Amino acid sequence: MSDTPLLQITGLSKSFGSVQALSEVDFEVRAGEVMALVGDNGAGKSTLVKCIAGTHSPDSGTIRFEGNPVHINSPKDAAKLGIEVVYQDLALCDNLDVVQNMYLGREASTFQILNEAVMEHHTGETLKSLAVTTIKSVRQTVATLSGGQRQSVAVARAVMWNSKLVVLDEPTAALGVAQTEQVLALVRRLGEQGLGVILISHNLHDVFETASRITVLRLGRTVGVFDRKATTQQAVVEAITAGTPTKVAGISSTTGVTA
Amino acid sequence: MTTADIVGPDRSAPVLPEEEVRSGLWGVWDRAWLNLRTGNLGPLPIIVGQVIVVMLFAFTATNFFTAVNFVDLIGQTAGTAMLAYGVVYVLLLGEIDLSIGYVAGIGALVVAELQLPGSGHQLPGIVAMLVAVAACAGIGLLQGSIVAFVGVPSFVVTLGGFLIWQGVILNTLQQRGTIIIQDRWINYTDSYLFSHLAGWVIAAIVSLLYPLSVLYKRITARGTVIANVNIYAFVARTLGVAITAFGVVAIANHGRVILEKEGLPLAGLIMVFFLVVLTFLAKWTTFGRHVYAVGGNAEAARRAGINVPRIRVLVFMISGATAGIGGIIFAAQVNSVALTFPPSNLLLNAIAAAVIGGVSLFGGRGEVRGALLGAVLISTLQNGLNTLNVSNGWIYVVTGAVLLFAVTLDTFARRLQARSGR
User: Fold this and answer.
1) Which residues pair with A222 in a beta bridge?
2) What is the ipTM, given to two decimal places?
3) Nearest chain B alpha carbon to A113
């Protein structure tokens, strides 16, 4: 791990009308680590991710990527920096095959004519490098794949584009036991390959099996960052349900919460 | 835990029978059997249907199997096929274009008006045709923009177009009466007949297209799945295309009974030319890939950075342009544009052709060649029944029944596919 975090967010706030979705949130991910982002419904996880992905622009606060302050105003900006988001409801086209999905929107082509050979070779290599071995043919349509295989394709697609930070939104929400294991192994491998990974999950079992650190959000504030090896599920659950903000806007020291 | 422990076999994944397919001649049998079991029939049912229809008419209708009728049939098919090509693109997006029948009428009207001698705005035939097709693409641009940017359902937008363009044609022709098309080049789109030799050369070139495309993939994409074509299936397909191409030219070259000249009509070449161009566009280019993607999952396409509105607008422009070309061919058949133009069943024939050809109404599935096969079947059926002096009413009934049968068969096939996870 390097000293400068891959992504460092300080004092990020975002409100929708009168609803304060995020207030003064601090968050960081280092290269080569899986940072879990947990919190109850409405804690602000999705909003934070959308600020990172460029879908929302924050009202205030700074985002530093590889040490440099950046403004992420669109998903294209995020992609340019090397940030890829894998959404919960998988953005795959069922009628297209694995290769076509991996290159969706970024097809290899010369003068608009598709270069199928390059795409097929590279897809095979990417899947192999991630040890995704259950997919029999890269020319199967995605409709024929199981939930775990589809999630693997979605993750592999995010990784293929020289990305540095991969955001996974509930990657195991709809999967069975064996498929969940398969996807979690893939998530760990991303970290081992030196990428920064943000894992959003409701499932603390998944989180404790993959993450190196855990950030807990509660009511739009950061209530704690835990080292996985030095904490228990109990402590994280407490933070999620009744956590005390580590920093409250305008107040320098923590004074507790009223909830 | 090591990686090997975790990434075990994915137990809930459907077992794919892919590996059971052997190589060589047995592979053809395996593949055919697999496709039959899993409901992946491709264009086979429609080809079988076509053969049955042709044999039926060969035995019952005395003048069906004449070369003159055959040359007529090519002209009738070409117009319908041109419209159906556009329908394929629109259906691939999961949209519909109900205006094409009257957009074809507008194309014919513009061409007829622009070639009119002494009108003060007479243009050479070829220029007039280009302007007409551009005008029809412009109509597509207008309708497509309302669908893509405003978000009005295409059914409603093009239903509006259906009425509006019908009204424009009615107003113009009621005032002007029938407009005769005298320009040689415009009429040639239907009635120009190639010499025997030219016909054979065209048949040879058409026969070579498929093997050349496979050869190209084998050279440029060596070692990939797409380049891996079963040699027997390849030979069978190549022979199928060649026999059809040379067979068509052979029959057309003997149509000297009534016509001054015999030979392959230009309309046939136009039909095949656009089949090749539009298939290339759909299957070999980024644009085509994006059309399939938007039809399969528009939200996924948008997130992947595809400009979805742009794709929608372009597809409606293609639909307008192909309708315009079809309209010109129909007008050239009768050398005029009259109040009875376009034929009332043109729109539904074109949509039926695409659907019979296996294009899904829900987007993302289907091929351009399906439109040609569907158009050939419908035209043969209607032409054959005509030569049997069957009334128009019954021709509609039969066409409708065939459409229903084809879609029912397709629905069963899809159910089989879903069950086998393909």
Assistant:
1) A217
2) 0.83
3) B285
